[in-house]
Amino acid sequence: MLKCRYQNNPCKVRNCKFIKDEYLDPCGLYSFLNTINEELKSYPTERELINSLKADYAKAWNDNKDSRAKGKATGTAFEKWVRKQIKQESESGKVGFSFGDFRVDLAIPSVDSARVILECKVYGDLQHTLGLSGLLTSSPENRKLGYIVFYEPDEREKRILDGFKRMYKNRFNYFIIKNGWSNTIQRLNEFCRT
Questions:
Q1: How many structural domains are present in the chain?
Q2: 92 and 186 belong to one structural domain
Q3: Burial code of 32-69, b = ≥16 C-beta within 10 A, e = fewer?
Q4: pLDDT digits (tens, 9 = 90+) for 78-111
Q5: Residue 64 DSSP symbol
Q6: CA pair distance 166, 63, nearest whole angstrom
Q7: Can you give the residue range of the structural domain that contains 132?
Q8: In sequence order, which residues have a C-beta less than 8 Å from that of residue 29 and are 6 or more positions away?
Q9: Of 81, 100, 133, which one is at a domain's C-terminal end?
């Protein structure tokens, strides 16, 4: 029987449903760890930063090993990792928009006086990308919105995000962690300064 290279280290899932008799159907952790291992080879000076995300992600995966859908837990781990990288005070919770309250991943400096909102996704998708427009148009003119993704968005999403950057100059930007690491974190912190 085939064995997953991450079984027992760091994955603690027993009887993994992704391991079949003759092939491995990669799960989210397997794909993420493969990417992280490539990033460690490509960015050896970023080892501490990369390993901190790897540890947080694997812990969330293992803490929810009996869950059928670990996406919420790993997404929350990514959000918390981003929060640790932000130099400004921040919190998550409901923030007021013209349409009412909406739960955001991070608000700087607080949900009561949010001058910067950050939405964090491991994987971006078209639905989340398009939803950013609603947050921008429903926000006060002096509020910024940052979109942080681990994986690079596809070309269609990038065109939309670049359009938002042009339309909401100085109010919107997006940040890709993979292939950027500390440079991306530095740009993010500059954006968050209010």
A1: 2
A2: yes
A3: bbeebeebeeebeebeebbeebbebbbebbeebeeeee
A4: 999 999 999 999 999 999 999 999 999 999 999 9
A5: T
A6: 41
A7: 86-192
A8: 6, 11, 57, 58, 61, 70, 74
A9: 81
